[in-house]
């Protein structure tokens, strides 16, 4: 998912809309905005892409509110119906509450069951609703302390935005799994999942929100605090590899440059291959392919073209839908590929749908050899922190060896990146630590719900 929030700007809802649009790649199943005018909260939301999710009438109704939070939804968990679209808006006698988040709790079932036993009734299957209940139930005397005590009870990967009439509270989980950035526009503070949102609205990036940090923004300014003593940075490797937009920055380095460095590293293992051209799978792998091409001194060509009117295939539910979409999305430039020995670079292989199709399409276009390079290590394990790489059964590398995958996708050779090489690349860009659990099986945050006896 993608989140955005801004405090005290006369064009708050419009800026939120633009910011969310720039983060559409982070979620395509729904979008919403909740605004405050210091007296009450008001919101609008809908399913699908942002431009479909919110009508002009809805946007007009949000005009003039100076404070806003917004969300684009990627349903890693919970179904994609409207009731699950964020931000949620809660009415309570202590004041309204708007909440949205990016990530996934690992003790949601646990906390939810306890809340239900205590009388709570849920309207959705979303983790964001859990936090609202915990905040409302807290016996602390200030809003900030109530949020803190709620955050202490949830575990997992999250960046939460909590809007009240008079304040916006922002929290990052103490492992810092999902990105969250602080920025400024016209003297107003804003937060976003990615810096591309700041560029879209003309805001300045200030800094990354830190693991375990709690930030309060209101008319008096900004207040930095912590709700956890743990500061254990485990930024999701997949954000660098695939998820984030190429022009988004991490600590001042573009994702493009990080991906290119991954490609340069991968190239060290591809040196023995004699090839005529390097092709990146558009869009997320073009940077890595560029790195490979530079190191190997082989020209990078646009041998695969992406139809820009097709969204992210991976996010589609159902294997048949994904296969159909890959076919609709990628086509070959026969004139470029014919008679060539090709190195094709993709950022990752999950189910193998994309690479299988690509290898065949390149051969059909007349490629003499197709060597597949993957700018990340074999993805073996499911993610419990908000990326829907689903079950072991669907993940090709958890079922097959590298040579079996190579055979299955029909490539001449298949080369992956080493885990340590990947970490080295991130370190060289100032990263303090990354989650790589889907590659290694070492989960930095214990999956508490899995320890429970299975619930009905
Ligand atoms: P596959 O087709 O093997 O199932 O998925 C691999 C393709 O999906 C790659 O082209 C990659 O760009 C994209 N992809 C890889 N990992 C993820 C992920 O975690 N989330 C999403 N949305 N897409 C991914
Ligand atoms: Fe990211 Fe993989 Fe960790 Fe999930 S398990 S947070 S996808 S690195
Ligand atoms: Mg791709």
Automatic annotation (TrEMBL):
Its cofactor is [4Fe-4S] cluster; Mg(2+). Pathway: Purine metabolism; IMP biosynthesis via de novo pathway; N(1)-(5-phospho-D-ribosyl)glycinamide from 5-phospho-alpha-D-ribose 1-diphosphate: step 1/2. It catalyses: 5-phospho-beta-D-ribosylamine + L-glutamate + diphosphate = 5-phospho-alpha-D-ribose 1-diphosphate + L-glutamine + H2O. GO terms for biological process: 'de novo' IMP biosynthetic process; purine nucleobase biosynthetic process. PROSITE patterns: GATASE_TYPE_2 (PS51278). Mg(2+) binds at residues 284, 346-347. Its EC number is 2.4.2.14. [4Fe-4S] cluster binds at residues 236, 383, 435, 438. Residues 1-220 form the Glutamine amidotransferase type-2 domain. Keywords: 4Fe-4S, Glutamine amidotransferase, Glycosyltransferase, Iron, Iron-sulfur, Magnesium, Metal-binding, Purine biosynthesis, Transferase. CDD domains: GPATase_N (cd00715), PRTases_typeI (cd06223). GO terms for molecular function: 4 iron, 4 sulfur cluster binding; amidophosphoribosyltransferase activity; magnesium ion binding. Binds 1 [4Fe-4S] cluster per subunit. Binds 1 Mg(2+) ion per subunit. Pfam families: GATase_6, Pribosyltran. The active site is at residue 1. It is an enzyme of class 2 (transferase). Catalyzes the formation of phosphoribosylamine from phosphoribosylpyrophosphate (PRPP) and glutamine. PANTHER family: AMIDOPHOSPHORIBOSYLTRANSFERASE. In the C-terminal section; belongs to the purine/pyrimidine phosphoribosyltransferase family. NCBIfam families: purF. This is Amidophosphoribosyltransferase. It comes from Aliicoccus persicus. The lineage of its organism: Bacteria, Bacillati, Bacillota, Bacilli, Bacillales. The gene is purF.
